[in-house]
Specification:
Layout (H helix, E strand, L loop, with lengths): L1 H9 L3 H12 L2 E6 L2 E6 L2 H10 L4 E2 L1 H12 L8 H15 L6 H18 L3 E3 H18 L12 H18 L3 H5 L7 H20 L11 H8 L3 H31 L3 E5 L3 E7 L5 E5 L4 E4 L1 H4 L3 H4 L34 H18 E6 L9 E3 L3 E3 L4 E6 L6
Parallel strand pairs: 2-8
Antiparallel strand pairs: 1-2, 3-5, 4-12, 5-8, 6-7, 9-12, 10-11
Helix pairs in contact: 1-2, 4-8, 6-7, 6-15, 7-12, 8-10, 10-12, 12-15
Cofactor: heme
GO molecular function: heme binding; iron ion binding; monooxygenase activity; oxidoreductase activity, acting on paired donors, with incorporation or reduction of molecular oxygen
Protein name: Cytochrome P450
Length: about 400
């Protein structure tokens, strides 16, 4: 299984490979790969335990913190305990409220997105453009100054973040001993410098500018300036915002357009504990977990289970929601429990708005590359398309101004 797992990851086929293995051996697997023991689960009961009922018994862990520090710093995504809780409490009031005025910002960047599609002759790489759109929107709304990457042909920050995510994913897989030491930070030093150059510029702006552009609303930039003890702490919070806002929103829109054009999180046990199910002859007995064991829970794996979502679980069929709804722990696109996504309301409202505006402008879209039905899935911080999603847009008869 170890060889098949590594091969499927390399070929961007990890999601279907995991689905095949769980159909054969059950939805919680013990895996030994390159001297590392890990547990993979897509059982709702286990995901509930990790996210909620046994939350205190699982953490990000030292290995994940060490590997991802070059990108995440001491942000909410890489820390546990009091450091994580303090970051969450500071960000919570700013990210959990979706304001109607935010849609004005969204429209501004939608206009730039539509312009780029038009300039490309209505055939565009939406993987790139929607990543830029989401970054521009999130920085405009929460940092009060947009990155404006849609207006710049070459935007090194996006490439730097992509390369750091890909690099750290490899290090996470080969995280132990000799294998992990083969890939030190020196190989991505230029990308780290590019990221920090952007973050330093942002932090300087936050510290220098105290004039609000969002009168009457609580300002994240004020909280960062007043509550953070150092420039580094502000940088860690800003990079968390970039990570949370850029890929999840952008990639959700990319996958949606890909499907419409066609008509794993990691936790580490921080004490000896157990998972509710996955052992015994029927795979329904508890699984003992030793302290330090790496746990991979797969939300996408759970949400593609045919015994939960039906035989067409892997088919994009929005109408399934008209007469059916899963239980809370069978569907967790934003996680649940203490680490629930703080920006889910923001993400949902802006995804809806962006898709509606795109289809107000275009009556149909089609894939530019034939036979793209089974798009490869690349495993990084988020599941991203393994190749660019290039769409052909057919404008409506009367263009909207």
């Amino acid at each position: 299984m170890a060889f098949g797992l590594a091969k499927s990851w390399y070929l961007d086929g990890i999601v279907p490979y995991a689905a095949k293995r769980t159909r054969e051996f059950g939805h919680t697997l013990n895996i030994d790969i390159l001297g590392m023991h890990l547990i993979y689960t897509e059982d709702p009961e286990n995901i509930e335990a990790i996210m909620s009922t046994k939350f205190s018994e699982y953490g990000k862990g030292r290995d994940l913190y060490r590997i991802w520090k070059n990108l995440m710093g001491d942000s909410i995504f890489a820390t546990d305990g009091s450091v994580w809780e303090a970051s969450k409490n500071m960000m919570h009031p700013h990210l959990t409220k979706a304001r109607t005025t935010d849609l004005d910002y969204s429209e501004e960047h939608i206009q730039k997105l539509l312009k780029r599609i038009s300039e490309a002759g209505h055939t565009a790489d939406m993987s790139d453009l929607l990543t830029r759109f989401s970054l521009d929107l999130v920085t405009h709304v929460f940092l009060e100054e947009s990155a404006n990457s849609l207006e710049i042909r070459d935007f090194p920050l996006n490439n730097a973040m992509d390369q750091l995510q890909a690099f750290n994913t490899i290090r996470t897989i080969f995280k132990q001993g000799y294998w992990g030491s083969l890939v030190p930070d020196i190989f991505v030093r230029s990308h780290m410098l590019e990221l920090n150059k952007y973050l330093d510029r942002r932090v300087d702006t936050i510290l220098q500018n105290s004039k609000s552009t969002n009168k009457g609303s609580p300002r994240l930039v004020d909280s960062l300036r007043l509550k953070c003890q150092s420039k580094k702490e502000i940088k860690d919070q800003v990079v968390a915002l970039l990570i949370a806002g850029r890929d999840p929103l952008g990639l959700s829109l990319v996958w949606a357009l890909h499907e419409l054009s066609l008509g794993f999180n990691i936790r580490t046990a921080i004490e000896d504990t157990s998972l509710p199910v996955g052992s015994g002859s029927n795979n329904r007995e508890p699984v003992g977990i030793l302290k330090g064991t790496q746990i991979i829970y797969s939300v996408i794996g759970m949400q593609r289970r045919s015994d939960i979502f039906g035989d067409d679980a892997t088919v994009f069929r929005p109408e399934r929601w008209e007469n059916w709804s899963p239980s809370k722990w069978e569907y967790a696109p934003f996680n649940h429990g203490p680490r629930v996504c703080l920006g889910q309301s923001f993400a949902i409202s802006h995804m809806r708005y962006a898709l509606c505006r795109i289809f107000q402008e275009y009556q149909a879209i089609a894939p530019a590359i034939p036979n793209e039905d089974e798009k490869g899935m690349r495993l990084e911080l988020n599941i991203k398309p393994a190749s660019p999603v290039i769409c052909i847009f057919k404008p409506r008869g009367v263009s909207r101004e």
